[in-house]
Amino acid sequence: MRQAGLIVAEVLERLRQKVQPGVTTRELNNMVEEIISKRGATPSFLHYRGYPASLCASVNEEVVHGIPSQRKLKEGDIVSLDVGACYQGYHGDASQTLAVGQISPETQRLLRVTSEALHLGLTEVRVGNHVGDISAAIQNHVEAAGYSVVRVLCGHGIGASMHEDPEIPNYATKQKGPRLEEGMVLAIEPMVNMGKSRVFTKEDQWTVVTADGSVSAHFEHTIAITPEGPQILTMA
Ligand code: MF3
Ligand code: CO
Predict the structure, then answer these.
(1) Average pLDDT over residues 135-148
(2) Residue 215: CB partners within 8 Å, gap ≥ 6?
(3) Rg (CA), the chain
């Protein structure tokens, strides 16, 4: 899973270099496929429940699961780039939201707060804590900043399948959720809307967008609880 994670980290790094006004999300998808296959891995998303691409590219009010297309990114956009790779039967999954050229200070703040929320969630990953501790850390940070977390989509366990138990909500549940144990690997992924929490899925059956049209950010890492402690697998 460390190998899968490193491949995902490499892809995200290359995407950071490639994103600029004028590039299409399909070009980004093709680059993702190229790198993943060159590393002897397969894209986790391609054909997953019929998903038609290897990258999710979600622009502005799109939250997650945006399908790559001929759409050109333009100055001032933000784009969530979500990548999964499967190496020797095990998955890694991570996402980042990038600015395309110059973006407004308000949108910069959304990206910063969402990334901070992910890292605060990651800090709660240790033996003896509960899933709810991760969720609460994310929700508290996001709501203190005046934003909302998406509730209908969650992080997840990950391993030989991309989606495994437990679910990792981005809001605290009444019960504190399952206890975290050595050997668990989790994909933690706050989805944060500048406006209200409500989202819907477009007619393409995939693209999730905010109901109020506000912009949305998404960051994700895969983290393992190893005998030596927690290790972020999708970070070089
Ligand atoms: N990171 C997303 C997730 O954890 C990726 C799934 S996209 C899909 O759910 F197309 F593969 F569904
Ligand atoms: Co995920």
Answers:
(1) 98
(2) 60, 61, 78, 107, 110, 193, 194
(3) 16
* Single-letter amino acid code for the residue at 22: G
Buried b (16+ CB within 10 A) or exposed e, 72-95: ebeeebbbbbbbbbbbeebbbbbb
Q: What is the pLDDT of residues 1-17, one digit of tens each?
A: 999 999 999 999 999 99
Which atom of ligand 1 is the closest one to the Cα of 65? 7
Q: 186 C-alpha vs ligand 2 centroid, how far in Å?
A: 9
Q: What is the pLDDT of residue 174?
A: 60
Residue 66 in contact with residue 56, Cβ under 8 Å? yes
Q: Ligand 2: distance of its center to the CA of 83 in Å?
A: 8
**CA 189 to ligand 2 center in whole angstroms:** 6
Share of the chain above pLDDT 90, in %: 98
Within a 10 A sphere around the Cβ of 120, how many other Cβ atoms? Answer: 17
Backbone phi, then psi, for 141, in 5-degree steps? -65, -45
Q: Ligand 1, residues 8, 49, 55, 56: which to mutate, most atoms within 8 A of Cβ?
A: 56
Tokens, residue 52: 């038609």
Q: What integer best gives the mean pLDDT of the chain?
A: 97
Average pLDDT over residues 110-116: 98
pLDDT digits (tens, 9 = 90+) for 59-106: 999 999 999 999 999 999 999 999 999 999 999 999 999 999 999 999
Ligand 1 atom nearest the C-alpha of 94 is 1
Q: Does residue 93 have its Cβ closer than 6 Å to ligand 1?
A: yes
